[in-house]
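On clarity, I found the account of how folds are encoded harder to follow than it need be. Since the whole study asks how a given chain folds, the encoding of that fold should be made plain. The format is easy to grasp once an entry is in front of the reader. For illustration, here is how one protein appears when written out as sequence plus structure tokens.
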Amino acid sequence: MIDYSFLKNTRTASKWEKFGMRRRSGVAVPLFSVKSKKSIGIGEIPDIKMVVKWCEQTGNTIVQLLPLNDTGYDFAPYNSVSSYALDPMYISIQSLRDVNLNPFKKDIRELRSKFSAACDKVDYAIKQGKVDLLWKIYKRTYLNRNRKYETFIKENSFWLKNYALFKALKHLYTGLSWEEWPRQYKDKDETALSNFWEKNKNKIEFHYWMQWQLSEQLKSVKNYASEKNIFLMGDIPFLVSRDSADVWSEREIFNLELSSGAPPDMYFANGQRWGMPPYKRDVIEKTNFDYFRKKLVYADNFYDMFRIDHFVGFFRLWTIDMNEPEDTAGLNGKFDPPGEWNWEETGRKLLDAMRDGPEMLPCAEDLGTVPDCSGKVLWEYGIPGMDVQRWKKESDNSFVNADGFRWLSIATVSTHDSSSVVEWWHNEAGTVDGILFGRLCANKNIGDEKTKEIISSLFDPEHSYYDRLLWKNNITEEIILQAFNLPKENCYDIIALYYDSFGEKEKFLDLIELTDADERDLLLKGKTNLNFIRKNLQFISGTSSIFSIQLLQEWLCLDENFLRKVEEKSYRINFPGVVNDANWTMILPYNLEKILNLDVNGEISGMVLKNERI
């Protein structure tokens, strides 16, 4: 048993003392993907209580939520229009406080009927449908002398007024970006905004009321979870949409000439361009990072823990000039700040400002191109990073065993930005990125026809999907060099790709100790089965990481019917750097009531208990 008492000597010691320095297991859930029978159109905040109840059944003690912030036109939770406001689409109309719903029973039935059809994708029209009905309810609601409501407005005035003004102006200009508004509103002319307020007070304060209702519902979930000894982990996006209340009202802290993103790597050959503006670090530092600290002050109302999104961005952020063509994605960017010598100090300053205020325990998403200083800083501050199973490899490209996972980490099979383990096994394991391979060939001045020739000689075209190239069985380093007809020193990058991916499935089966020859043969042909899922979840639960948190769909693959569904259809949440109708729209095929009654819940409980994670 690992002794985690070293956490008493870290910079977050007080938070660990409260939280408990012991192994825990948990589940990660995007609220839009889970629904109950009571939900209208989308998962609602009170539905989180059912996830908490499932955790109580299965021995899990952490519920990790994707961001619940108010989203924009693309409904991407990491491209929110506010770092504070919650999204009205998650509100439960039946759970509204201090309102009389009797006059609206017919409206509620009609809304439920309109969005009740069984579907496998979120219909985000539910957001406007709910807002329209909430407006009708609000106009009939008496709020004078409602002390809780008045206190909420007073305590949150530091963000609420600007957010409500922004939303009312967005409505007036039919969704146009604030950059296209008339100059007096775009540039926040005080007289113009004051006049607008007087003429639209009711519409502006409607957003106060919605945010109060959302706040009350999420606080209720936190209280319920606390009674069950379950911890809620919120997700705090590092960046915010360019077209957001934050950027409109505090544009002096944002660099609007740049877009944030991520540099090219072996998983995303062209890098990523996200569109959100980076911060002006020198300006923010002069305020003692007030903007970041205030985010946490509000989130502290709802969560026991928080996930630091894009933690590596604390040290430096990949930025792309706004004039750079869209089709180059993140290829032609640069780090800000540029000098690696000051990255550690840059990150520490921000961390120091954020750790002092809230009671929440921080956790970090330290994925992507990670600077050398990151691990050292996380250890010193006592902040768990993330260890994703398929990306944890030794220097010889074998998978890291259970004892090799960082003690101070969250061990996970997959993330919301990756494929599930089943999809990875079917389409990605043992492959290389075709776009990256093509670019490496182009860098060697190899033409398109020759590149096609090389691909044909090295890869299996019948089993290569989604721009992933699967190596043929008999490929060796010598065969690669022959195909390129180049000396070894000119092919180190290709050879590195080969050793990282060739035979990956065999290595993975060795890792999870799946030894039966016949079963291995079936699995190597692309099949999956319950034993494969079970062995893998047992492995990840048995790692030395202090936390093991799995996406709900990974846990549910222990149910054979669910596993069959996952093999037939993708339940991936997001594909980074791509805008399409599949991202952020996935709905699980089981409602929460069914999930609570699955036979496999007992098996999950046994697995958690066996690995001493309760």
